[in-house]
């Protein structure tokens, strides 16, 4: 008969909290235990899984490859545990909830989902901030946000719970005409945008000349510039609008590398309301993307 190893939620909670806070001392203060007790719990978890999970590099505490593998499972186990407990305790969803959304990815979809959550939970005060992904993640790391959806170049990343990949497409207006002998006219977000980086990188690899003809931080402005025939840009399926057409490698537009989109939060900081919204976002994401729980 198969022998089962049970990962205790208190050990997983300690592990996730150490990762989120970055040290044993603050973890002990938050969880009401001494630093030696926290170290012992991490050691017990390592003994259970048979692998070293955390390591010090100078003064920095980092996940080992095995720790990266476990952290996503641990976050999901704790989320399900805490949501189950909240349901049985008939948790009241209230308080302030600060949510970060990227300005350049499916913002309308997530706004609608969050608006539905707000309508169903009137005692929750929502503070929604739309910004560049890097700024959003910086705010989350500084505890200025409770949860965030953001784009990164690589996964897994700190505080990510689930993530999925999106392939951006080259698009232009339906009637747009371009000359392969002239520089590609690019419509883009300002410097630092992952879409912009991929477009320029793909064209540089192909030895194609390009120039930025329109630049704006807003997705709506980029969409309108495409529809007005000013040039080409990169969008995902969720941000394509009627009147656009997708350009192909056969037309001289090389395939673009995937983007990685994630749901980020610090479990130790998450309220019942935050965990409920996280659950709804995870369910919504599974409807249009197969998510990966954050493990290597």
Could you report the average pLDDT, rounded to the nearest whole number?
89
Which residue ranges are poorly predicted, with pLDDT under 50 across at least 5 consecutive positions?
A: none
CATH class of the largest domain: Alpha Beta
Strand content: 15-25%
Instruction: Please give the order of strands in the largest beta sheet.
Output: 4-3-5-12-6-13
Report the CATH topology name of the largest domain: D-Maltodextrin-Binding Protein, domain 2
Q: Please state the structural category.
A: alpha/beta
Main features:
D-Maltodextrin-Binding Protein, domain 2; alpha/beta; 3 domains; 23% strand; six-stranded mixed β-sheet; 296 residues; 13 strands; 41% helix; Arc Repressor Mutant, subunit A; three-stranded antiparallel β-sheet
Structure report:
This protein is α/β, with parallel strands linked by helices and 296 residues long. α1 packs across α4 and α2 (24-31) crosses α3. It has 9 helices and 13 strands. It has a 6-stranded mixed sheet, sandwiched between helices. Strands 10-7-11 form a 3-stranded antiparallel sheet. Strands 1-2 form a two-stranded antiparallel sheet. The chain is elongated and about 70 Å long. The chain folds into 3 domains: 9-85, Winged helix-like DNA-binding domain superfamily/Winged helix DNA-binding domain (Arc Repressor Mutant, subunit A, Orthogonal Bundle), CATH 1.10.10.10; 95-163 and 259-293, Periplasmic binding protein-like II (D-Maltodextrin-Binding Protein, domain 2); 169-251, D-Maltodextrin-Binding Protein, domain 2, CATH 3.40.190.10.
